[in-house]
Write a structure and sequence with these properties.
Elements: E1 6-8, E2 18-23, E3 29-35, E4 48-55, H1 66-74, E5 79-84, H2 101-113, E6 118-127, H3 129-140, E7 145-151, H4 158-161, H5 172-181, E8 187-189, H6 200-210, H7 215-220, E9 243-248, H8 254-265, E10 274-279, H9 303-326, E11 337-341, E12 345-349, E13 358-365, E14 377-380, E15 388-394, H10 410-413, H11 418-421, E16 426-430, E17 438-452, E18 456-466, E19 472-483, E20 490-502, E21 507-513, E22 539-545, E23 552-558
Parallel strand pairs: 4-5, 4-6, 6-7, 7-9, 9-10, 10-11, 14-16
Antiparallel strand pairs: 1-8, 2-3, 3-5, 11-12, 13-14, 13-23, 15-22, 16-21, 17-20, 17-22, 17-23, 18-19, 18-21
Helix pairs in contact: 1-9, 2-3
Length: about 575
């Protein structure tokens, strides 16, 4: 049966946008919209600092809502320039991500500074891929680029698929992105059955139905080619510019973005101009305070909800540009770190983690109880003296369910993970019931001793907030792929960073599993490539703790400031 799909083309240009074309050095023309502040009532200087956005998702789509965002910026005296990147929607050129963004970013900034409405100063703004295009422009080192505000992104997207020094499970959802958005100028909506094998054939059928294919998808599946997404100078080796990193504690790529921030915050030359805004939001800007999201709070479908969301989205960038583009506010007016403690509001700090943050270790104990439902085994203040173990079976044909199909909008669903924890192929651990709030602020890491019978297996871990009603919601997560023949059975999982309050009556909890489907392709149990494998084999994994092999969860805690 042939695949059915929906082709999504360019939406109409907004009425208040000035449609233009910017010519690149190779002659390719990129579709570019310009939004200008309202004409002054008196004869004054009409040149403005510009905020550039370069994206692949149709500059005129409801999804990116830049006609509305532009109004917030122009009201503060900024020109806004929004561009379809090369090969997408109204822009010319070949459809291939990453490789030309540095040159095209430089040439677009050159085009901006030549316009009569430009005062020669340019900043950049945007999320995800259009966070990456900012880093690509930084690498090009145009002298007019004065500041950037990358949101929910990474300077090198390879750090998302394959973190440095670690083997990672196949993030099917993330790789599939290229098969939807990087085939040709348009985007494509369709559904594949991720349970059918070989999995790669589902995407071959999609490309055959469309009549074209995604070249970058081909570089990631069925084998990761490892081609760098930064084709020239790495941006961290370029001239430093002020950066406001905007991250979401529930963003599915927060770990990669926080690695960028932590590296630059400690790198001489860059450290002085690094700023962090971190909110209890996901990749699609849904808020923990609204999770799970009701129809009245869904900014993707509700116009009033969108109007309420946009100031939180845009204002941190506007305030940052007021300092580093316009120069109308002093640097001292900006906090180096502005962060949200989930369930407890906003905070500021001179550094991240906050200066009063201290590590706290929870040891995995009473392992024999880990195969039961929550609360399961213990997260204790002291390690067990004697070695203990808990086993689970990873069956590739019956993987642990993700409970969300779109982790970019995780908080839209914000699922209860207690049913997952109750499965016999998931281990569960919990701390004691809290008599007072426990405030987490900083990185989270899990160090566990795990062995397995399969040649290669995976470990997925999620830190949870277990409520008094028995429901459990994710705080942070991490995953790693390991080989059974490695030299040590100790595994480190980077579970990202968070700012989160566990309230009285709640418990800190942890679940450990061998799969997370359909977000990730399950390990086959045979050592075969999960993209092309037809047969699978269940495998047994054993978590060891206590004695000479203690396993532990480490969080960062700040003093409780509850009145």
């Amino acid at each position: 049966m042939p695949f059915t799909f929906e082709r999504i083309g360019a939406a109409p240009v907004a009425a208040d946008a000035l449609p233009c074309v910017a010519r690149m050095r190779d002659g390719v023309r990129l579709a570019t919209d310009v939004y200008l502040p309202a004409a002054p009532s008196a004869a004054t200087d009409t040149a403005y600092p510009s905020v550039l956005v370069r994206l692949p998702y149709d500059k005129n789509s409801r999804y990116v809502y830049f006609d509305r965002i532009a109004r917030l910026f122009t009201a503060r005296g900024y020109a806004v320039v929004v561009q379809d990147v090369r090969g997408k929607f109204r822009s010319g050129g070949h459809t291939l991500p990453f490789l030309r963004e540095s040159e095209d970013g430089y040439d677009t900034i050159d085009w901006i500074v030549d316009q009569p409405w430009s005062d020669g100063r340019v900043g950049m703004f945007g999320d995800s891929y259009y966070g990456f295009t900012q880093w690509a422009a930084v690498a090009a080192q145009h002298p007019a680029l004065r500041a950037i505000v990358p949101r929910m992104t990474a300077a090198d997207f390879n750090a998302i698929w394959q973190p440095a020094g670690r083997s990672a499970p196949i993030w099917l959802e993330g790789i599939e992105y290229f098969a939807h958005h990087w085939v040709d100028n348009d985007s494509y909506e369709y559904r594949v059955d991720r349970t059918r094998r070989p999995v790669i054939e589902q995407y071959e059928a999609v490309f055959q139905a469309i009549g074209n294919r995604s070249l970058w998808f081909d570089l990631l599946a069925p084998r990761h080619a490892g081609l760098s997404t930064q084709s020239g100078l790495h941006p961290f080796d370029a001239r430093p510019v002020p950066v406001l990193h905007c991250v979401g504690w529930f963003d599915n790529i927060v770990t990669a973005h926080m690695r960028d921030y932590m590296e630059l915050a400690s790198r001489p030359g860059w450290d002085a101009v690094q700023y962090l805004w971190a909110g209890a939001v996901d990749h699609e800007n849904y808020r923990l305070a609204h999770a799970p999201v009701s129809a009245q709070d869904d900014h993707n479908t509700n116009e009033d909800a969108l109007e309420r969301m946009l100031p939180l989205y845009a204002n941190p960038a506007i305030e940052f540009f007021d300092v580093f583009l316009k120069g109308v506010r002093p640097v001292s007016s900006l906090s180096k770190v502005t962060w949200e403690l989930g369930h407890a509001g906003w905070r500021t700090s001179p550094v991240w983690p906050p200066v009063d943050s201290v590590p706290r270790t929870f040891w995995l104990t009473e392992a024999a109880r880990a195969t039961g439902p929550l609360p399961g085994a213990h997260l204790a203040d002291e390690p067990a003296r004697d070695e203990q173990a808990a086993q689970w079976t990873h069956d590739p044909d019956s993987p642990v369910p993700s409970l969300v199909e779109d982790s970019f909008a995780y908080l839209h669903v914000h699922p209860d993970l207690a049913p997952v924890a109750a499965r016999d192929d998931v281990l569960a651990f919990s701390g004691p019931v809290l008599s007072e709030s426990l405030d987490l602020a900083g990185p989270i890491g899990l160090d566990v001793h795990v062995t397995g019978t399969a040649p290669e297996f995976e470990v997925f871990a999620k830190v949870l907030d277990l409520g008094p009603d028995g429901r459990a919601h994710m705080i942070s997560r991490g995953q790693v792929s390991v080989r059974a023949d490695r030299s040590s059975d100790e595994i480190h999982l980077d579970l990202g960073h968070t700012g989160y309050r566990l309230r009285p009556g709640h418990r800190l909890a942890l679940i450990v599993a061998g799969s997370d489907h359909p977000l990730f392709l399950p390990s086959t149990g045979t050592g075969e490539n999960p993209w092309t494998a037809v047969t699978t084999k269940p495998g047994t994994q054993t978590l060891h703790t206590g004695g000479a092999r203690p396993s532990r969860l480490t969080v960062c805690v700040v003093p409780n400031d509850t009145p």
